[in-house]
Amino acid sequence: MADSDDAVEGKLPLLRNPVVRTIRSREGTFDITQANAEPNLDGFGYRDEVYLPGEEIPEFERHIEATSIEVFYDLFFAANLCVFAEVQDVTNAQQVATFVCYFCLLWFTWLALGLFDVRFVTDSVFERVVRAVHFGAMVGFAVVAPNFNLAEQDPRTFRTMSLILTTSRAALGFQYGTILWHVRKFKSSRIGLAIMCSLNFIAAFIYLGAAFAFKEKGTEALWVLWFVVTVVEVAVSVWGSYQWEVLSFYGTHLTNRVSLLTFILMGEGIVTVCSAVSKIVLNANQWTTPTIGNVAAGVANIYLIYMIYMDWRRAKRFPRAKQLIWSFLHLPFHLALKLFILASSQFVIFWKIFETAYWVDNEFTVAMGAALDPTSDFNITTEWFVGTIEEVVNKTFAIYVPKYFGTYAAVQNATAELRKMPDAIWNVPDFSLATPEEQELLGVLQSTLETLLLSVQNSLFSTFNINGYGGVSDDVELFETAEEQALELNSQKFRTVVIAAYVGAGFTLILVNILFIISRSRKWTTFNYVRKGINFLIGIGLCLVSLITLDDLKAAEYTITPWPLPTIVFTLFLVLVINHLPHPPPIFFSGRAKPQEGEGAAKTGSGSPSFVSPVGDGTHETKSGYQNVSVRDQEA
Known about the structure:
Blueprint: H1 5-8, E1 19-24, E2 30-31, E3 56-60, H2 68-87, H3 93-120, H4 125-144, H5 155-182, H6 187-213, H7 224-243, H8 254-280, H9 289-312, H10 320-328, H11 330-371, H12 382-399, H13 405-419, H14 436-463, H15 482-519, H16 526-545, H17 552-559, H18 564-578, E4 611-616, E5 619-623, E6 628-632
Antiparallel strand pairs: 1-2, 1-3, 4-5, 5-6
């Protein structure tokens, strides 16, 4: 890429031919047509494609891992997710559905270019210009993120999204067109590339048509067309990789590319958690032990998932089917991982809200107890009591400034109501013997403090963009005040976060387990089956924990504590330990798996170097100075 010899010397070509040589299928013959950088060794022992007799097939430059320009493009992907997490409140079912839609569109747009890059990436003036167009498309995703909502469906936002998809696919169509031009002399390769070129231009035209179709009303389900076209794009790409050698993913760095995106997502997750920390800890006094524990748990969860993923990522090269299945399974894995990370960061914020609300409630209770204590020698007055309450509220608002002016008005109304209390109410020796007037005053006092506490709690939620006020309606049959309704809406948001965190963590573990099963190439033993079964059960168990939200009282006893995130940490750590346990003695399970005969590199009967050329369907012909041996690769 950018570090090639031509680029270093300032001789960047207008168009660069990615073909490094021609493979002629006559046995043992390789016609090198173009020298380019370093030789590609995939054709000398790693490719297992079937070549027709006498057919010339272009061999493209291959990379062991992602190039610098691919990594740079991946950073745009992560940046978009950061923006979405910052501007959208993913704390209810509709917003979760919106995030899933946004994430899938972003992921498939990344995949469309990624599938091209792993096969044909080059560095030229044309490629850099087109890459700038793709970067612009990624910036477009960030532009629409604040207003992208499936429930409201702002027509301008959805038209913009369609135009972004149009631009991305049109640019990709031109890229496939240049590859078609480079291989125009290879008859067997032209059809496949022509189909991919046409596919992207057709998809671009469909997206363009959808952009003009979005209207104020009557197009609520039109966004489904995006996913229909996207699925067709992926299906044709996979089908084409099996039909034409020029489109094959075998021997490419596709698995490395999706793994790299996984690591970038985890790094972006650390940024998301740290962003939540910067919101809640505004001075040194805000660092309490539970807060430190939740922040540490949010980061530890991501690190544990990283270790589990790395430990279970065994093979770097796969047969065709396994390679594609393993790669495409990263879509649900990445989605579950991102939902879990978002929920973890929200957990950190929710806990700080609960902790602050607990402190305010406790201060109110202490002031109330002192004011109504008949044994106290202190001369309690209404002014002292109101001043104490205002001091608590002002301390809270000094750190977490209310988002709405109405909050200040609500607090002033509440304190004005408290000032109406006569000083005689504080001198009642026994409220069980109080007069009806005194009982009524006590009821007003308690209800006013409850309303004031509700106002403070809802203000804390809105300060952190968890805004229940936005859903308050005029229905007062169930809720006596708007504050009560807003608090209930905020509670529903928290239940959504609980569900997203545990279901996201559970599915992340389940999908990583499936990825390991696909990547494992050695023989399975009974102990391996038991261990993987335990992993599945733990993942399912994490998902089932979310059912606690069906019972509000039981849920409150557990979720409104500092323990939900640390519980996931302990669970993931248990999984890590289980999967590093040594194989038990044969008295419990069968012995260790032994490497199968033929596993690994083919061996000749001597120490002389060997030359391996593909002769079709997984059979490698091994030639040395002493013997010719034909060995079939075995999949353990």
